[in-house]
């Protein structure tokens, strides 16, 4: 399966609105075709119920749905995949339980990216590439590190963290497979 180049990550706390409308508007008005439901403030049942509704929306637009960390909910809502934080389950464990799920992994270094690849992850997000409001204390990796990681792993690398319309092309020129982010995609539809 070929993954989309644009990967939008939700954060309803940032936008304070109806996350379902935001996702629908994003898919309707842009060419984004992969959504990660990353709602850290939602617990099991609420996340499951939102996941079911987001799954309906993503199916209407032929978009992939990735659930943040909770592969039980990914399976329960028939999502396409799960995205694992760096300190979460090893990708091989998830692949062993649910071999058909796409498994993404949050990498913050070359070592972490190589670990994810060895463990069977299908893609990684590498972050933060640039300074980002989401993680103000995190030291940016920069474009040279993005290029180094992209050249060392065989799986797709999504540039994440501070990526904007202005610097997106630089990330792609340095070897990123695609772009992942929150504000780069959702700001467009949230400000309407």
Counting DSSP H or I runs of 4 or more residues, the number of helices is 9
Distance between the termini: 33 Å
**Share of residues in helices:** 40-55%
CA gyration radius, whole angstroms: 15 Å
Order of helices and strands: EHHEHEHEHEHEHEHEH
| Strands ordered across the widest β-sheet | 1-2-3-4-5-6-7-8
Strand coverage percent: 15-25%
Spans where pLDDT lies below 50 across 5 or more residues:
none
Secondary structural class: alpha/beta
Q: On the 0-100 scale, what is the average pLDDT?
A: 95
Shape: globular
Main sheet record: 8 strands, parallel, barrel
Instruction: Kindly state the number of beta strands.
Output: 8
How would you characterize this protein structure?
- Helix 2 packs parallel to helix 3.
- The protein has helices at 12-15, 19-29, 44-60, 71-76, 91-97, 110-118, 142-152, 168-173, 183-190; strands at residues 6-9, 34-37, 64-68, 81-84, 102-107, 123-126, 157-159, 178-181.
- It is built from nine helices and eight strands.
- The chain is globular.
- By secondary structure, it is α/β, with parallel strands linked by helices.
């Amino acid at each position: 399966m070929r993954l989309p180049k644009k990967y939008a990550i939700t954060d309803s706390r940032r936008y304070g609105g109806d996350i379902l409308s935001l996702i629908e508007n994003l898919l309707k008005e842009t060419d984004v075709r992969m959504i990660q439901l990353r709602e850290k403030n939602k617990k099991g049942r609420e996340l499951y119920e939102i996941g079911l509704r987001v799954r309906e929306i993503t199916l209407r637009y032929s978009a992939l749905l990735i659930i943040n960390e909770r592969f039980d909910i990914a399976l329960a809502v028939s999502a396409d995949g799960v995205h694992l934080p760096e300190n979460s389950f090893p990708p091989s464990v998830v692949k062993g339980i649910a071999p058909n799920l796409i498994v993404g992994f949050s990498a913050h270094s070359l070592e972490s990216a190589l670990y994810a690849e060895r463990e069977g992850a299908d893609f990684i997000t590498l972050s933060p590439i640039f300074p980002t409001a989401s993680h103000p204390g995190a030291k940016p990796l920069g474009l040279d590190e993005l290029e180094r990681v992209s050249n060392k792993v065989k799986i797709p690398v999504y540039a994440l963290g501070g990526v904007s319309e202005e610097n997106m092309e630089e990330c792609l020129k340095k070897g990123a497979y695609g772009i992942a982010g929150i504000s780069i995609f959702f700001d467009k539809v949230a400000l309407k």
